[in-house]
Design brief:
about 300 residues, about 50% helix, Helix Hairpins, 3 domains, 3-stranded antiparallel sheet
């Protein structure tokens, strides 16, 4: 029995041995060409893509495509019907697609992010959906890594990043406009309050306070602080202060400094900041009921 098995193996090797050898050589040649392609195509691909994070994934795709073609060629040498193989692969891909589809979508989103460049490494971005601000530290083909202002790492898949609204504070001109709102009472002097607001911003270091304009969608905006009446509210007059920061890296701190200066100036100028007042009225019967509650029955005092 053992000898018959050896005879069968020798017959198979005699029949298919040359084909198997050629198939192995084809795969080996494909792997060799794939590795060399990564080395020699690196510079042309980098020159074409112009995005360092996208170069490595592109070269990996080229490498594995060459290896896949070599495997298909070796199967053809062995006499495997590739048409039937492709048909079975189509059915299999439908099943695998349920699992692979989310991963593939993530990689495709990464490719779009790297090519469209809504943000780049080093940019300061804000994600309104999760209320997080931070600096882009790394963009890979699968995810984006952000260092938040709280000094924590935020890793978000590229598919989710591409489907979210992202505010890029440092794309192009890093100067940023901010609006600070407050209210004054109807008895207060509006002009004095506006002057106090503008001076509070001008006196804060980091705020652009003199000269210059900036163009936004063909509209020119002055860079010096400007306050204006926004609305007549229920409790007072709403005033908005528009000012420009030299950079966006300390937004909350700058806003706090301006608020502090503004509060002091409004207090000095006797400008009242309105706040809710409540007046409680009791009729005579209710007042009598409250007075009749015994002192020792505290549970009934509500």
């Amino acid at each position: 029995m053992f000898e018959s098995g050896i005879d069968i193996l020798l017959d198979l090797l005699g029949t298919y041995g040359p084909k198997i050898l050629i198939a192995i050589l084809v795969i080996a040649l494909g792997v060799y060409i794939a590795n060399k392609s990564v080395k020699y195509l690196g510079r042309p691909v980098a020159k074409y893509l112009k995005r360092p994070p996208l170069i490595k994934p592109a070269l990996q795709i080229i490498k594995y495509l060459i290896i896949l073609l070599a495997i298909l060629a070796s199967l053809a040498v062995l006499g495997v019907e590739l048409t039937g193989l492709f048909l079975s692969a189509t059915v299999l891909s439908v099943i695998i697609g349920i699992v692979v589809a989310p991963i593939a979508a993530n990689f495709i989103s990464g490719a779009f992010l790297l090519s469209e460049r809504p943000y780049d490494i080093g940019d300061m971005i804000y994600i309104p959906e999760i209320d997080r601000t931070g600096f882009v530290e790394d963009i890979s083909i699968s995810h984006t890594r952000i260092t938040t202002l709280e000094n924590t790492y935020l890793v978000v898949s590229n598919q989710r990043m591409r489907n979210r609204d992202v505010v890029n504070y440092t794309s192009g001109d890093i100067r940023i406009r901010r609006i600070l709102s407050f209210e004054i009472s109807y008895e207060s002097d509006i002009e004095v309050a506006i002057k106090a607001a503008e001076e509070s911003a001008e006196e804060t270091r980091g705020v652009i306070s003199k000269g210059g304009k900036i163009s936004i969608m063909s509209t020119y905006y002055p860079l010096n602080p400007k306050a204006f009446v926004e609305n007549f509210g229920e409790s007072g007059i709403e005033i908005s202060l528009m000012y420009w920061l030299k950079n966006p890296y300390y937004i909350k701190g700058m806003e706090s400094k301006i608020y502090k200066k503004l509060f002091k100036k409004l207090k000095t100028e006797n400008i009242e900041i309105p706040y809710p007042h409540r007046q409680l009225l009791f009729d005579k019967d209710s007042y009598q009921d409250v007075q009749e509650i015994p002192d020792n029955d505290k549970s009934k005092e509500v």
